[in-house]
Amino acid sequence: MTTEKEIQAKQVKTRAFIDQKPGTSGLRKKVTQFQQTGYLENFVQAVFNTIAPCQGKKLVVGGDGRYFNREAIQVIIKMAVANGFSHILVGQGGILSTPAASCVIRKNQACGGIILSASHNPGGPDEDFGIKFNAENGGPAPEKLTDAIFQETLSMEQYLSIDADDIELDTLASVQLGECQIDIIDPVSDYADLMESIFDFKAMKALVTSGDFRMCFDAMHAVNGPYAIEIIEKRLGAPKGTVINGIPLTDFGGGHPDPNLVHAHELVDLLYGDDPLDFGAASDGDGDRNMVLGKKFFINPCDSLALLTANAHLIPAYAKGIAGVARSMPTSRAVDRVATAMDIPCYETPTGWKFFGNLLDAGKITLCGEESFGTGSSHVREKDGLWAVLFWLNLIAVKKQSVNEIVTSHWAQYGRDYFTRHDYEAVDSAAAQDMIGQLRAKIATLPDQVIAGATVESADDFEYIDPVDNSKTVAQGVRIYLTNGGRIVFRLSGTGTQGATLRVYLDTYQQNPELLAQETQQALSELIAVAEAVAGIKSFTGREKPCVIT
Question: Are 478 and 440 in contact (CB under 8 A)?
Fold first, then answer.
């Protein structure tokens, strides 16, 4: 143990970097960029400068276990001690899923936490790394805070650290480093206890141990493996091996930890094969996204949010009703119809979980979600992949219906919002910006135009005024509404690390009972043609088709 007398903060000279502006989920770059001298340190010091004074405060630190996670944590611990934090909570092995980090921040009343993750992006020496600061409510830092952090990075000349041995991360312990107490905590227990307080574990255990229900959870060699094993196999009693790829690996086993039909192919084969399972689910690199499958049946995340909202009263924690619901703008309008029927508010926000935080803190909503496989509630301030999976298990247990039956009966009651997202990844940034720029220039002239046989009703560039703090967020995506009820959204994503990612979202409503079982791309084929005609996607991106369709 290092004694207090041996600890002295030192100033380390550095140079500023101009590329440290956080995106929708923090700062994401290639590992090699973070390994540059001073690069990680500058950003961490910028965070500490922005939330200063740090003296006497409590900080949570953890990550998804990807390559460079452990090294970064040692740097952060030493810098946090030098900056005066009195208490640091670190997940054992450097592990904390993003929702679990939010849980720990809230439970321990920390001033915030540093989460090391690039979410669903690949990991490894030549792949991606990320860092973000979550505020005292457990949610992602609001835009004014991330803007302030960025401004700090531009003038960085020095950072604070200490000379000390690395902390042993793999053993639960409490270590005193100078005036700072560092606790290596069980990363799973607090979160698992929280889940047990929300859901009907007795009914769920009866389901998964009945012998008549077969399921699989694919952790994709990412952070949620230990959480799923503890909850699904140990607490709910599912057979050992129900959780596959459950050991977090620095490179996610060479896979892409994005829970969709393309990347979670091992799980998809189990649900669509000759002897399909009843239920399947997967989560991503840092545990905040989810994909849920029934027997040869894919649940679109937009539909999932609508279904969870419609059935929330069946879950113990939400049995007395929910305050409201929110969705990101590109997410389909399926949940809007449920909210109208339930007579509860429904908010449409920009993409990025931080926008839900204000609504949750103000008690305006209880559930929220994004089309990008993220769903959550007021229990934490992050999207929560395993929570969504347990919600579905709870519904199956109490409704005594299959996934397929639950979804199709919902469509019969509310109609179906066909939805798809077409991703064009790593396209030339200038070309993508030009395409969006030309679309924005057309907005005023689009209404009443007939494009590829469809008539434009209205068009805009989405902007949002927060109902809690009145902050305004602009230029969030070009929306085109058609008179046939269809909607097309064009948006550049802020989660990639290479080139630009163009996302095209298409959705349309159908309530004819005879047309509720169409193949999604076929149901949206007219909209797809309109999107190409209005935007010239192929010519701007040089791509004949999307990289990923969800």
Answer: yes
Nearest to 465 by CA among 456, 457, 476, 474: 474
Q: At what angle do helices 385-399 and 201-208 cross, to 10 degrees?
A: 80
What is the three-class DSSP state of 58? Answer: strand
Is 493 catalytic? The answer is: no
| Residue owning tokens 């849980």 | 103
Q: Is residue 506 exposed (0-12), middle (13-18) or buried (19+ Cβ within 10 Å)?
A: buried
Sign of CA pseudo-dihedral 238, 240, 242, 248: positive
pTM score above 0.90: yes
Separation between Cα atoms, residue 241 and residue 339, nearest integer Å: 38
**Which secondary-structure segment (H or E) carries 270?**
helix 265-272
- Give per-residue pLDDT as tens, 424-472: 998 999 999 999 999 999 999 999 999 999 999 999 999 999 999 999 9
Instruction: Please state the separation of Cα 130 from the chain's center in Å.
Output: 13
Contact 169, 94 (CB under 8 A): yes
CB proximity list for 327: less than 8 A, separation 6 or greater: 302, 305, 335, 336, 346, 347, 348, 349, 368, 369, 370
The C-alpha torsion from 153 through 155 and 158 to 159, rounded to 10°, is -20
Query: How far apart are alpha carbons 271 and 394 in whole angstroms?
Result: 19
Instruction: Round to whole Å and give the CA distance between 346 and 338.
Output: 9
Please choose, from the candidates 200, 151, 7, 187, the residue with its C-alpha nearest in 3D space to the C-alpha of residue 85.
7
Cα angle 485, 490, 495; round to 5: 135
* DSSP 8-state assignment for residue 546: -
Residue 3 has pLDDT above 70, yes or no: no
Report d(CA 535, CA 428) in Å as an integer.
16
Give the C-alpha separation, 521 to 510, whole Å.
14
For residue 90, give both structure tokens. 């670190």
Cα 229 to Cα 437: distance, rounded to the nearest angstrom: 47
Return the bridge partners of 464, or none.
Answer: 473
DSSP for 295-334, written as a single string: TTEE--HHHHHHHHHHTGGGSGGGTT--S-EEEETTS-TH
Q: Give the pLDDT band of residue 261 (cuts 50, 70, 90).
A: confident
* Alpha-carbon distances of 543 from 206, 423, 464, 499, 528, rounded to whole Å: 49, 11, 31, 14, 14
User: Which of 97, 119, 161, 332 is labelled catalytic?
Assistant: 119
Helix axes 98-107 and 189-198, enclosed angle (nearest 10): 90
Q: How many residues does the chain have?
A: 550
SS3 433: helix
The reported pLDDT for the residue numbered 494 is 58
Contact call for residues 26 and 10 (beta carbons, < 8 A)? no
